[in-house]
Amino acid sequence: MKVKHILVTFIFGLIILDLGALFKLIHWPGAGEMIFASFVIEIIAGILAIWKILTSDKFKEFLNS
User: Which tops the pLDDT comparison, 65 or 5?
Assistant: First the structure.
């Protein structure tokens, strides 16, 4: 997976989080589900980012130096 895909996933999660917060302020239904979904998306993106860092060749070279 490319880094730009991981960044897009993070941004998508942040957009859903912002919409969920807006829904919460206006007292519209579905705010809690949107906030929960955004956290799940951001956790997945974080795991993918950590995996990308740990499996990169530059990181392995840095650890071995």
Answer: 5
Question: What is the rounded radius of gyration, in angstroms, for the C-alpha atoms of the chain?
Answer: 16
pLDDT band at 5 (very low <50, low <70, confident <90, very high): very high
- Which pairs from 4-11 meet CB under 8 Å and 24+ separation? 6/45, 6/48, 6/49, 6/52, 9/41, 9/44, 9/45, 9/48, 10/42, 10/45, 10/46, 10/49
Return the number of other C-beta atoms located less than 10 Å from residue 20's C-beta: 21
54, amino acid identity: L
Predicted pLDDT of residue 2: 87
> Is residue 48 within 8 Å of 9, Cβ to Cβ?
yes
